[in-house]
Amino acid sequence: MRPTQENDVFHAIAHPARRAMLVALVEGEHTASALAEPFEMTFGAVSQHLRVLEQAELVEVRRAGRLRLYRLRAEPLGEVATWVGEFARYFEERLDALGDYLDRKHGQPPTPPPKRLRARRR
């Protein structure tokens, strides 16, 4: 197991509160207090979560007067998407199995899987 680094994207999204904050930031900029609103935690804890997201470069901060506005930077999540993509076949197989089950349950013949094009070997 590798040690966790402060700027580790996987570490940053490991906590459900930080994931929820990122989802909220998809809508646009928010202050820390707006991001803290749905959680029952101290403002210090929220600041700490935001610091982890900032160190992982998942959020940018800008000042507007006395306010600090947080904005999503989704680019580092590409690493996560690539990693999750390694498991796409598993999810496709599970969804195909669910579709077959539902077809059997409702008396419909199972639909054949789509034909996939294969690259020719030279």
Features:
122 residues; mainly alpha; Arc Repressor Mutant, subunit A; three-stranded antiparallel beta sheet; 6 helices; 48% helix; elongated
Overview of this protein structure:
The chain is 48% helix and 11% strand. It contains six helices and three strands; from the N terminus they run ααβααββαα. The two termini are 40 Å apart. The mean pLDDT is 84. The protein folds into two domains: 9-75, Winged helix-like DNA-binding domain superfamily/Winged helix DNA-binding domain (Arc Repressor Mutant, subunit A), CATH 1.10.10.10; 77-107. The chain has helices at 9-12, 16-25, 32-36, 43-55, 77-85, 88-105; strands at residues 30-31, 59-64, 67-72. With 122 residues, the chain is mainly α. A three-stranded antiparallel beta sheet has the order 1-3-2.
Please specify the SSE layout and strand pairing.
Layout: H1 9-12, H2 16-25, E1 30-31, H3 32-36, H4 43-55, E2 59-64, E3 67-72, H5 77-85, H6 88-105
What is the fourth-level CATH superfamily of the largest domain?
A: Winged helix-like DNA-binding domain superfamily/Winged helix DNA-binding domain
What is the CATH T-level topology of the largest domain?
A: Arc Repressor Mutant, subunit A
* Proportion in helices: 40-55%
Q: Number of helical runs?
A: 6
Taking strands numbered 1, 2, ... along the chain, how are they ordered across the largest sheet? Answer: 1-3-2
Total number of strands: 3
Q: SSE string, helix = H, strand = E?
A: HHEHHEEHH
